[in-house]
């Protein structure tokens, strides 16, 4: 991992993924969380403060030490205890059926082995557990998708492996996880922003 990816990208992600426009989507993804929650791609803690009252503990998986340090003030002010339990979503250091619910926001685009990460998330969920998600990904609009494919390589190089072309609902369902609720739309803004702004927000269960 180079200096740009290790030191600079976490700050960019903190700003871009912490935009106020995304808070309603994060709140929607957090709706229904309860008990012990595993959050994959915790980042700088943008979801802290949005967890429902039913959440008793968050175990966070975050590979970036810089992002974890950026989350310090949010964690210290949280009414819900947050602990860092791992660095790699594809290898969760958690027992089978050991968490009540799961959360992943703006992270499935970047995890290198996303299929394994989703399989791990399914493994650690207790029966009846649900997963809240909010992610950007591949647009169904052919003209937007063409630009996403053209820009994907540059996006990955500049933003720590972030993909524009991952079909989020398909990836989730390919892991044997059933999507119970799904809303998809573009973020408000100019048409030029659409390759980065096609969002999938919802809830799923294994």
From TrEMBL:
The protein's name in its UniProt record: SAM-dependent methyltransferase
PANTHER family in alphabetical order: METHYLTRANSFERASE LIKE 7A (PTHR45036:SF1), METHYLTRANSFERASE LIKE 7B (PTHR45036)
GO molecular function per UniProt: S-adenosylmethionine-dependent methyltransferase activity
Keyword annotations of the record: Methyltransferase, Transferase
One Pfam family linked to the record: Methyltransf_11
CDD domains, per the entry: AdoMet_MTases (cd02440)
Domain of life assignment: Bacteria
Methyltransferase type domain: residues covered: 38-131
Gene Ontology BP terms: methylation
SUPFAM superfamilies: S-adenosyl-L-methionine-dependent methyltransferases
UniProt cross-references to InterPro entries, sorted A to Z: Methyltransf_11 (IPR013216), SAM-dependent_MTases_sf (IPR029063), Thiol_S-MT (IPR052356)
């Amino acid at each position: 991992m180079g200096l740009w990816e290790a030191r600079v990208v976490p700050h960019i992600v903190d700003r871009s993924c912490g935009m106020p426009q995304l808070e309603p989507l994060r709140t929607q993804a957090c709706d229904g969380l309860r008990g012990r929650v595993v959050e994959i791609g915790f980042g700088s803690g943008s979801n802290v403060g949005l967890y429902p009252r039913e959440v008793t503990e968050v175990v966070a998986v975050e590979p970036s030490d810089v992002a974890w340090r950026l989350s310090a003030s949010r964690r210290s002010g949280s009414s819900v205890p947050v602990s860092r339990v791992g660095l790699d979503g594809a290898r969760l250091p958690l027992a089978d059926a050991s968490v009540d619910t799961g959360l992943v926001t703006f992270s499935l685009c970047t995890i290198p082995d996303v299929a394994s990460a989703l399989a791990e998330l399914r493994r650690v969920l207790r029966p009846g557990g649900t997963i809240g998600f909010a992610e950007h990904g591949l647009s169904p609009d052919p003209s937007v998708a063409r630009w996403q494919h053209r820009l994907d390589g540059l996006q990955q190089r500049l933003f720590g492996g972030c993909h524009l072309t991952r079909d989020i609902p398909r990836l989730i369902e390919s892991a044997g996880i059933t999507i119970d609720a799904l809303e998809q739309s573009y973020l408000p803004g100019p048409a030029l922003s659409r390759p980065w702004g096609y969002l999938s927000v919802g809830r799923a269960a294994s």
